[in-house]
């Protein structure tokens, strides 16, 4: 029997025993699903948040896209509805005044992409991509505004569980949808035959989303005991999806990002001086690791049966750099860069692909070196903001998530492209993290006296009841 104070948990499996007789195991098997209101309020906002996150994960694209079509009007309309609803909700929450003072950094990419209309080789396509990026940005800001501090993370974790369960179950139960067939649409042998793809068109997209969900769920599992059973089930399904996808990049992301987060957690209890010494020592260690990373990377890929050149990606990267000649600075316009590069690449190398298989290069094709530098600064700032917020106790789960997403983005974009992706969870989460962390730090300073340490403040914050909102509407209090 445990001694001391125990947290009251929702009686998911019936009425729990009195506190004095409640064991650790009984606490564990009475889980709380992340994102479900504990006090019976806020169901409208909770459902909207979970649904929006599920939609932006891309898990409905296959179901709503006509056969043979490149895009889905239904998916676009659904995203637009979510974005407009979030925008109206932000107005009612009084968010607009805070955007210019706190969240302006999330609008800088939109301003640059809008400016790219002036030199885009396909203005219509660029405009559609800008709208999709704006929709995801507004939803991310609403998520952080409606659920302050670390409450937004609960919905992100809950959505991750739903995404993993839905996609893996589809892969196992409906192979015609969730598994790559033995033949392509042209009747040729499919090199990805048998690999899981869930509700995505390609196994790599599915595997990468499973890796992102694994990162999110590790944070939830290690942060709150009441989430461990639900997040543990989600973790099992996420890694099952990574294995089923046979994606090398997903396997690396699903391991590297959680390990980096674990290292960050170990640094928090240390003093500022000790952390500084470790970071200084980490610089030469990082250089050494980078030198030997190519060897380890090749070994891992060979163990997974993959080509060490990432299925010819290195040849594509060289060709893209040659095809970009004369457009290095500004690219071909947001979302339209490949219209500029694709034909040139085929002429130079004979390779016919739809993207560079590298997020950094794809961003250069769209927005040039200016766009790449801007996004590198954005994600670097997100990592720094997250680390500061975590070490000083302004936020916990959202700070770790912001750090993890930054690392995930830098590592994952070497073989994929999602650094600035419209209508996507890969952009919603960074925006939500920036907004949540920017709004948390001033509140933390004003709500604690100068005599309170960061640890004392966080101890007080953990005892606050979640979902302390008075409205059951998505909009929240209009006052």
Notes on the protein architecture:
- The chain has 19 helices and no strands.
- It is mainly alpha-helical and 479 residues long.
- Helix 2 (43-56) crosses helix 8, helix 7 runs parallel beside helix 18 and helix 10 (203-223) runs antiparallel to helix 17 (397-412).
- The longest helix has 33 residues, at 359-391.
- The chain is globular, with a radius of gyration of 23 Å.
- The model is unreliable at 1-20 and 443-475 (pLDDT under 50).
Keywords:
single chain, 479 residues, mainly alpha, 19 helices
Give a quick rundown of the structure:
This protein has helices spanning 24-28, 43-56, 61-64, 73-92, 96-101, 108-115, 123-146, 151-173, 175-178, 203-223, 228-245, 248-267, 272-303, 313-323, 337-349, 359-391, 397-412, 425-447, 454-462. It has 479 residues and is mainly α. The relative contact order is 0.13.
Taken from the alpha-carbon principal axes, the silhouette is globular
Give the averaged pLDDT, no decimals. Answer: 80
Helical percentage: 55-70%
Report how far the terminal alpha carbons are from each other: 47 Å
Radius of gyration (CA) equals: 23 Å
Main sheet characteristics: none
- How many helices does DSSP assign? 19
Could you say which structural class the secondary elements and strand pairing correspond to? Answer: mainly alpha
């Amino acid at each position: 029997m445990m001694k001391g104070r125990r947290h009251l948990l929702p009686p998911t499996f019936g009425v729990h025993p009195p506190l004095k007789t409640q064991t650790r195991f009984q606490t564990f098997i009475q889980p709380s699903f992340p994102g479900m209101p504990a006090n019976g309020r806020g169901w409208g906002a909770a459902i909207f948040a979970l649904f929006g996150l599920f939609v932006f994960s891309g898990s409905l694209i296959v179901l709503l896209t006509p056969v043979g079509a490149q895009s889905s009007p239904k998916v676009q309309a659904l995203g637009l509805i979510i974005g407009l609803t979030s925008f109206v909700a932000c107005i009612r929450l009084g968010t607009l005044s805070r955007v210019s003072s706190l969240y302006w950094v999330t609008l800088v990419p939109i301003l640059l992409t809008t400016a790219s209309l002036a030199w885009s080789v396909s203005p219509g396509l660029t405009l559609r991509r800008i709208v999709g990026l704006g929709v995801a940005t507004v939803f991310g800001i609403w998520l952080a505004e409606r659920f302050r501090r670390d409450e937004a993370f609960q919905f992100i974790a809950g959505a991750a569980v739903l995404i993993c369960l839905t996609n893996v179950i589809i892969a196992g139960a409906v192979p015609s949808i969730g598994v790559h067939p033995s033949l392509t649409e042209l009747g040729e042998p499919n090199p990805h035959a048998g690999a899981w793809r869930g509700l995505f068109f390609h196994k790599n997209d599915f595997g990468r989303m499973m890796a992102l969900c694994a990162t999110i769920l590790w944070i939830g599992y290690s942060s709150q005991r009441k989430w461990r059973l639900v997040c543990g089930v989600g973790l099992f399904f996420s890694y099952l999806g990574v294995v089923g996808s046979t994606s090398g990049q997903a396997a690396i992301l699903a391991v590297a990002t959680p390990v980096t987060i674990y290292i960050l957690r170990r640094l928090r209890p240390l003093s500022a001086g000790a952390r500084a010494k470790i970071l200084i020592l980490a610089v030469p260690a990082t250089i050494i690791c980078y030198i030997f990373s190519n060897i380890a990377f090749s070994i891992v890929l060979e163990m997974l049966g993959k080509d060490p050149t990432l299925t010819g990606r290195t040849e594509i990267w060289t060709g893209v750099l040659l095809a970009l000649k004369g457009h290095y600075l500004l690219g071909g316009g947001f979302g339209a860069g490949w219209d500029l590069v694709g034909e040139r690449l085929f002429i130079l190398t004979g390779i016919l692909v739809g993207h560079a298989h590298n997020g950094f290069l794809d961003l250069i094709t769209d927005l040039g070196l200016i766009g790449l530098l801007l996004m590198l600064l954005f994600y670097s700032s997100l990592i720094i903001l997250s680390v500061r917020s975590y070490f000083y106790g302004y936020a916990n789960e959202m700070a770790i998530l912001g750090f993890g997403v930054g690392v995930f983005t830098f590592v994952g974009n070497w073989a994929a492209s999602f650094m600035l992706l419209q209508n996507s969870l890969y952009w919603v989460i960074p925006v939500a993290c920036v907004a949540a962390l920017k709004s948390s730090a001033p509140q933390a300073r004003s709500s604690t006296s100068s005599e309170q340490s960061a640890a004392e403040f966080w101890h007080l914050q953990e005892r606050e009841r979640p979902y302390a909102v008075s409205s059951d509407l998505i909009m929240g209090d209009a006052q």
